[in-house]
Amino acid sequence: MAAPISKNDVVRELIRGIQYDVRLYDELYKLLLKQQHCYLSFDEQSMQAITDKLQPMLDTLHKNAEHRTKLLGYLGLEQNKTGMNRLLGALPGKLRTQAGQQWHMLETRVQSCQQQNQLNGQLSASFNEMLQQFDHDSSNSYSSSKLMELR
């Protein structure tokens, strides 16, 4: 029979998870910037490669957030930002400062990624709209068949 997990172990796991996610969000942000560059340079092949990397990373971040939520519940705290703030406030001095900084960094990284993703979504919509317009215009303009008629 496995020994029960101590609350100190749960807190350590929460803090390690936050640190890991900060690094993962840094990687995500870099990929989102590359994705933006692909949209702007019409590099569809590289865009697909980036998209293939993004989904597993997003899945991991989602699972990590769910795990953090469960750990807060295990500690008897609200399973939201309020619960995390209560936990951080209850930590001893130096650990409270370090963990609070890490949590703030995570929140900042999440916001940066959300903003970049929103921008990329707008670029994607513009990119697709332009492609559709190009397809539509090419069917209504001098196509190669019309040029052949001139011979």
TrEMBL record:
Functionally, this protein is described as follows: Required for the efficient initiation of filament assembly.
Q: Which UniProt keywords apply?
A: Bacterial flagellum biogenesis
Instruction: Look up keyword DNA-binding and say if it applies.
Output: no
Its domain of life? Bacteria
> In its UniProt record, which GO terms are filed under biological process?
bacterial-type flagellum assembly
Q: Which organism is it from?
A: Vibrio albus
Under which name does UniProt file this protein?
Flagellar protein FlgN
Name the family the entry cites. Answer: Belongs to the FlgN family.
